[in-house]
Amino acid sequence: MVRATMGTGRSMRFTVVVITRDRRRSLLAVLARARRIGERAGERPGDGPRIIVVDNASRDGSADAVAERFPEVTLIRSPRNLGAVARNLAADHVRTPYLAFWDDDTWWDPDAPDRAADLLDAHPRLAVVTGRIMVEPGAREDPIVPELRHSPVPGPEWLPGPALGSFLAGASMVRTEAFREAGGFSARLWLGGEEELLSADLMALGWHLCFAEDVVVHHEPSPLREPHLRRRHGIRNTLWFTWLRRPLPTAVRRTAGLLRTLPRDRVSAAALAEAAAGAPWVVRERRTLPRDVEARLRRLEASQRASTARRYVS
Q1: Domain for residue 4, yes or no?
Q2: 17 and 84 belong to one structural domain
Q3: Distances (CA, A) of 200 to 50, 76, 195, 217, 305
Q4: Which residues constitute the domain of residue 234?
């Protein structure tokens, strides 16, 4: 079921996309903040940016609560949990140039979406703007932010911020045209590090990604999480991406490095079994990246190994 409305003014440049599952309380708080973006711009209630919520088969009444309290929101009720692919479903209903990806436990400063849209307006080959993530409560900078700020990825001189090799969906605005050209998020990866494959495919198509210091995004991690499932999928998806897109010597080296650092437990074992089971699909879909994109990703490897924000623990 889909119900739609459309915003006006500057907010027509972007659509806020939120995917959710079983986080009714935090979702409603996020939507209340999203509604204030239009109010800040002096627009009438309901005339702010269009907001699309894809409910991933929640069992806690999330969808009904959205329909009751936020009638201006476009609500898509998925009969099953689509994971990150729910964002693709939302994108099918988008008519604005840009997609502001939020999560059901993240929200943006009121001026942040316009700042990101301004950067995309000014730079036609820029596909993704990732903001500065502040962890709540307390507004502490997320440990991943220094890695974004000091990214070693080379980029063209016109980029308005440090070039990135990947992005974080809940803290990024994406050019709709580029998202569709790259095919959106992979249904096979589902959820957990799903941005890495899409980012590489965007770069292979000639698009660029960057970090923007003044696009501020807040993240208050929900206690309703499935850390073991997320870790299992993260390991599996890292391996799949590596063998789908990286040259053979790099894939072997990265796989060996990952195996050395993984915890020796049931979650890791399950992830490796899933990755192995997907080998026939990986072989069919394998397409190595252009040399210039591979060179950019290689520049990331040292910082990824040293990262404190990318540990496979749960």
Answers
A1: no
A2: yes
A3: 28, 29, 9, 23, 19
A4: 227-306
Predicted structure pTM score: 0.92
| Domain total of the chain | 2
- Report if residue 311 sits inside a domain: no
Residue 206 sits in a domain whose CATH number is 3.90.550.10
- The DSSP secondary-structure symbol of 108 reads E
Per-residue pLDDT of the chain (314 residues; tens, 9 = 90+): 554 444 445 668 999 999 999 999 999 999 999 998 866 655 665 567 999 999 999 999 999 999 999 999 999 999 999 999 999 999 999 999 999 999 999 999 999 999 999 999 999 999 999 999 999 999 999 999 999 999 999 999 999 999 999 999 999 999 999 999 999 999 999 999 999 999 999 999 999 999 999 999 999 998 877 889 989 999 999 999 999 999 999 999 999 999 999 999 999 999 999 999 999 999 999 999 999 999 999 999 888 777 766 555 44
Q: Cα separation of 234 and 44, whole Å?
A: 42
> How many CB atoms neighbour CB 116 within 10 A?
28
Q: Based on C-alpha coordinates, what's the Rg of the chain?
A: 19
Query: Tokens 């990246």 — which residue?
Result: 289
In the numeric block, which tokens belong to residue 75?
């609500």
Q: How many CB atoms lie within 10 A of CB 21?
A: 22
State whether residue 306 is helix, strand or coil: helix
Task: State how far the Cα of 211 lies from the Cα of 151, in Å rounded to an integer.
Answer: 9
- C-beta separation of 50 from 15 below 8 A: yes
Residues 165 and 235 in one domain: no
> Which of 197, 219, 241 marks a domain boundary?
219
* Nearest of 23, 171, 181, 168 to residue 88 by alpha carbon: 181
